[in-house]
Amino acid sequence: MAVGAWAAGGTAETREARDARMAWWREAKFGMFIHWGVYAVPAGTYKGERVGGIGEWIMLRAKIPVAEYRAFAREFNPVDYDPDAWARLAKAAGMRYIVITSKHHDGFALFDSAVTDWDVVDATPYRRDLIGPLAAAARRHGLKFGCYYSQAQDWTHPGGAKAGYKEGEGWDEAHKGSFDEYLRTIAIPQTREVLTRISPDILWWDTPTWMTPERAAPLHELIALRPGLITNNRLGGRYSGDTETPEQYIPATGFKDRDWEVCMTMNDTWSTTMRIVRARRRSCAT
User: Taking a C-beta distance cutoff of 8 angstroms, is the pair 235, 216 a contact?
Assistant: First the structure.
């Protein structure tokens, strides 16, 4: 049985409380979802060859060793970054919220994390947080703000999950290790950092590889740190969250009484592009 109908901390959420919490999101309808990270440097090419598949998965698909991939961060220097311009563009297009990858599957954080040096402040010449300024800009322009966070897959930190591999396996000895230790030392404390320092309105989990109810529970409990938070259905461990997330298609009949949003690219990859998310109010249930 899914446990998404229960609020963090184990208390049941009433229909009225849920409707109040979801009201702005159901009204918003249209948002911007930004994938950005170190994968923008190789941009789909490794050792002179194009790598098939979506660009932000290049580390896994090309089996790039951790040390080689980390070296790309030395070229990640977005000196022309203008978060206010991004927020103004979103608002001018009629968007009502922005979501950005605080950490994607390569494990690289776009904020200054205290639990790793694999982040934009410690590993790049830019040496400044990217998430906080965009959150502030979005709110200045009346937009809600959300963070995507890859809670399970992490191809750099030891023990992180890797799609298509068994636990403890990988293509590089540097990232093999205990998944439970990874959750304890990276995923759980970083989720806490995101919720307490950035205070997003949305937390967008992704790819619950190797997740179980026991492993997902500590992450779910952290939701209580951000009252009113909206989460999706990709945490894992039978936690259904607040929203279904059909990808690259629009469901003809919705999801019964579930809220849902379509995540869809403007081309054939998520990385270094902005993707559109259309939020649809859940089908009426009587």
Answer: yes
Which is more confident, 2 or 122? 122
More confident call, 84 vs 270:
84
What is the model's pLDDT at position 286?
A: 28
178-184: Cβ within 8 A, 24+ apart? 179/210, 179/215, 180/215, 182/154, 182/157, 182/158, 183/151, 183/215, 183/218, 183/219
Separation between Cα atoms, residue 174 and residue 272, nearest integer Å = 26
Beta bridge partners of 83: none
**Residue 133 DSSP SS3:** helix
pTM of the model: 0.91
Ordered alpha helix ranges (H), 29-127? 58-61, 66-71, 83-92, 120-123
Confirm whether 209 is domain-assigned: no
Question: Which among 159, 208, 204 has a CA at the least distance from the CA of 180?
Answer: 159
Q: How many domains does the chain have?
A: 1
pLDDT of residue 11: 64
Residue 184's SS3 state is helix
Residue 118 belongs to a domain = yes
CATH for 267: 3.20.20.80
Say if 87 falls within a structural domain.
yes
| Domain assignment of residue 200, yes or no | no
Tokens 């999101």 belong to 25
Distance CA 264, CA 127 (A): 31
Domain of 240?
Answer: 29-178+229-280
Minimal CA–CA distance to 82: which of 135, 138, 134? 134
Mean predicted confidence (pLDDT) in 104-128: 98
